[in-house]
Design brief:
Layout (H helix, E strand, L loop, with lengths): L1 H15 L5 E7 L4 E8 L15 E2 L4 H14 L20 E6 L5 E5 L6 H6 L11 H10 L29 H13 L3 H13 L10 H4 L6 E3 L5 E3 L18 E2 L1 H12 L3 E2 L2 E2 L3 H7 L31 E3 L4 E3 L12 E5 L3 E6 L4 E6 L2 E2 L4 H24 L1
Helix pairs in contact: 1-10, 2-5, 2-6
Length: 395
């Protein structure tokens, strides 16, 4: 298909011009992979070419997988979407809400007006925040000496809520608590639970919290964008022996593995002849669970890690369990009601059930929502839809 050549050319050019270090992109329908490409370098300081099986830190693309694991336990009646999650996680039984700093710079806290539920956690409406997009949380961590979330230390979860549960959408550490809830009711550590109940059944053998020796041979280096736009490798790796597995962002994996997860969603919960989730569960995960609330602009508070995040600024954006939902057709051709999200180091995916197509594009660049990475993503996605439309016309 001509669109395949166009995608190849775009990704090859962006990598050759060092606009991005390297990239792997893959698209599929429910039955088969329809596009695959790998361009550029795994590490700009070395000669290794990017390959389709290269291993990336997929960061917050972990969230959808953790949410799927939790929904299996909801199906079994071991977790409830709307019961107080404090019954499962005592640390969340009496949450405190941040009210600002007093004249001495000490944080003021008050009890939350209602209890936190699993649904709040899955939809980022519990009140938790990431410091990356919340200056008060940056200051709170400095004041209290609590570690940041990527430390994977339990103390990183001891932060207050920034708003009362259910009152607004704010991106935060919620899915790490979903991972803790999975552990509490399954009796397994999160890595074991996800391996046994999702990753292995889906054939995602290259996805893990711990980088195995085979994966390390194919690991992609993190790169940082300098002020002048140039890119260089920068040291980054999550603790390989963490206090807790970060359900909100701890996984390393490949594009080929993640596309299998998206295909399971396209196939209403089925993969390799087994039912991983019930069709009605998958349908529910793709619905708006934040009502009149909207996903809001995320304004950067930590410049090296993220730019401002303002996807489709003119569109109302909703949240499912646990996906971004676009409410209108996007410029690239994504259908209304599609599911998507991303990872901090510029990894992205989308799932469009109405067109039976999904795509994954992986890079390793900080800060998040890097303009050149977004251009690569948009060109890839537009090319995939152009190919679908051409096939439809030919038929």
């Amino acid at each position: 298909m001509q669109s395949k050549a166009l995608i190849d050319e775009l990704l090859r050019q962006k990598s050759a011009d060092k606009e991005i270090p390297g990239v792997v992109a893959m698209a599929a329908n429910g039955n088969e992979v329809i596009y695959q490409g790998a361009y550029g370098k795994r590490d700009l300081s070395k000669d290794d070419a990017m390959t389709a099986d290269s291993v990336f830190w997929i960061a917050s693309m972990t969230k959808a997988i953790t949410a799927a694991g939790a929904m299996q336990l909801v199906e079994q009646g071991k977790l409830s979407l709307d019961a107080p999650i404090g019954k499962v996680l005592p640390d969340l039984a009496a949450p405190q809400v941040f009210e600002g700093f007093d004249s001495n710079g000490e944080p003021n806290l008050r009890p939350a007006k209602c209890e936190i539920t699993l649904r709040h956690l899955m939809t980022h409406t519990a009140g938790f925040a990431y410091d990356l997009w919340n200056g008060d949380m940056v200051r709170y961590l400095e004041k209290t000496g609590l570690p940041g979330i990527t430390s994977c230390k339990n103390d990183a979860l001891k932060t207050p809520l920034m708003t009362d549960p259910g009152t607004r959408w704010e991106y935060g550490i919620n899915i790490d608590f979903v991972g803790k809830a999975i552990e509490a009711v399954s009796g397994k550590r999160l890595d074991s639970y996800l391996r046994d109940h999702l990753l292995t059944p889906l054939g995602m053998t290259d996805t893990s919290f711990r980088i195995g020796e085979a994966q390390r041979q194919r690991l992609v280096a993190m790169h940082a964008r300098a002020e002048d736009g140039s890119l260089g490798p920068t040291p980054f790796e999550l603790d390989q022996d963490p206090e807790f597995h970060m359900g909100g962002g701890g996984l390393y994996g490949t594009a080929g593995d993640y596309i299998k997860f998206t295909q399971m969603i396209l196939n209403n919960g089925r993969a390799n002849g087994t039912e991983v989730l019930k069709p009605e569960t998958v349908a529910m995960m793709g619905q708006n669970h934040i009502g009149q609330l909207n996903m809001t602009r995320m304004t950067s508070a930590v410049a090296f890690a993220t730019n401002d995040v303002n996807l489709y600024p003119d569109m109302e954006k909703k949240w499912g369990l646990s996906f971004l939902i676009n409410t209108a057709r996007t410029p690239e051709g994504r259908s209304p009601g599609s599911l998507a999200w991303a990872g901090l180091a510029n990894t992205y995916f989308w799932i469009d059930p109405s067109r039976d197509v999904a795509g994954v594009i992986l890079m390793q660049v900080l800060p998040f929502v890097d303009q050149k990475c977004l251009e690569a993503f948009a060109g890839f996605e537009s090319g995939v839809y152009a190919g679908l439309d051409a096939t439809k016309q030919a038929a």
